[in-house]
Design goal:
Elements (H helix, E strand, L loop, with lengths): L10 E4 L2 E11 L7 E8 L5 E6 L6 E2 L2 E11 L3 E6 L5 E5 H4 L11 E7 L2 E6 L3 E8 L13 E6 L4 E5 L7 E5 L5 E5 L2
Antiparallel strand pairs: 1-2, 1-5, 2-3, 3-4, 6-7, 6-9, 7-8, 9-10, 11-12, 11-14, 12-13, 14-15
């Protein structure tokens, strides 16, 4: 692979470790060699790094595959998933999921990123529907302005929502930002 192949979503081996390109920008300055400025995510540790590459750099593609898997359960150290097609079970360290672990719901479908047939990353759906289990009572008249209240959902997720959201409602939230999107009619 050439440095110009490093587009967002591309996976490759760099210094013996698999990385995925988060963002890349091609730069050509007067009287200088062209460079590719990138932001990379280490697929094993999840760490982000900034790196600049030149035409002299060559890369080996990473043997990365993806599979849709169902979340089964968690124990003290790991979260367990089952491939929806092959029914093979995988586990991934809770630490590698970071803050996103709170979005895991029983029987939820996620995309597992596998490197050498071992899970290295979990891609969550863009949105999830989750039940509100605790909601402070809104005071009549507060709805004139666009005020919000903080509700507690399953898994202990706290979300800022409009005042009309009440206990027992199902809401849709963005797993990237943790923000309220809409109430789900059911």
């Amino acid at each position: 692979m050439e440095y110009t192949d490093l587009t967002p979503g591309c996976t490759f081996i760099f210094e013996g470790t698999p990385y995925i390109v988060i963002s890349s920008e091609f730069h050509r300055m007067q009287m200088r060699k062209a460079v590719m400025r990138t932001t990379l995510r280490n697929l094993i540790t999840g760490q982000l790094i900034q790196k600049t590459f030149t035409a002299a750099d060559k890369f080996e593609p990473a043997d990365v595959t993806k599979c849709v898997a169902k979340y089964l359960y968690s124990d003290a150290d790991y979260c367990y998933f089952m491939d929806n097609v092959s029914l093979e079970q995988y586990h991934i360290n809770k630490e590698s999921l970071g803050e996103k672990i709170k979005y895991l719901i029983d029987d939820m479908d996620v995309t597992l990123v596998l490197f050498q047939q071992k899970p290295v990353q979990v891609e969550f759906p863009k949105h999830i529907n989750i039940k509100v289990i605790e909601s402070p009572i809104a005071i009549k008249g507060d709805s004139v302005t666009s005020t919000f209240k903080t509700v507690t959902c399953e898994n202990g997720i706290k979300v800022s929502c409009p005042l009309f959201i009440k206990e027992g409602d199902i809401i849709k939230i963005d797993t990237e930002t943790g923000e309220y999107i809409e109430r789900v009619r059911g």
